[in-house]
Amino acid sequence: EGVSWNLLMRREKVCQRQIDRLKFALGQTQAGIQFNNRVVQPLYHRKVTAMAPDVTQNPTNNQNNRPTTNTNPWLYARSGETTANAAAQAETWGAYCNEGREQSPINVVTRDVWQGNNDVITTHFNTTASYVKNTGH
């Protein structure tokens, strides 16, 4: 699976405006559905690791390369619903998530977390705008 989840070690505050902007953006790109969460799934073969500031990067690849036969789109919920629907997800996500093909939300049990050896994630924001112009070449 090619997705890394980055969990905060401590709870951070967000304001209602941030939540509203995120929901609006999700609705604009998901046919009006303003959320994109799946009901919690078992951990299966995945391992949750914690990172420390003084470790070197040692990437691993646990990718599942088995082909899937599912060609149907997966759904968070049915049309018109405003919360995640476990039944709709079970009907449409199975060939992806049950096989470990796609990332699923998991219940992180902190007592079972492994000490990892990945670099610490840092975040940097700046206000410099960048533009790309497609000239057709």
Automatic annotation (TrEMBL):
InterPro entries xrefs: CA_dom, CA_dom_sf
Alpha-carbonic anhydrase domain segment(s): 72-137
Origin superkingdom: Eukaryota
Name the record gives this protein: Alpha-carbonic anhydrase domain-containing protein
Lineage start: Eukaryota, Sar, Alveolata, Dinophyceae, Gonyaulacales
Gene3D superfamilies tied to this protein: Alpha carbonic anhydrase
Listed transmembrane segments: none
Organism: Alexandrium andersonii
SUPFAM superfamilies: Carbonic anhydrase (SSF51069)
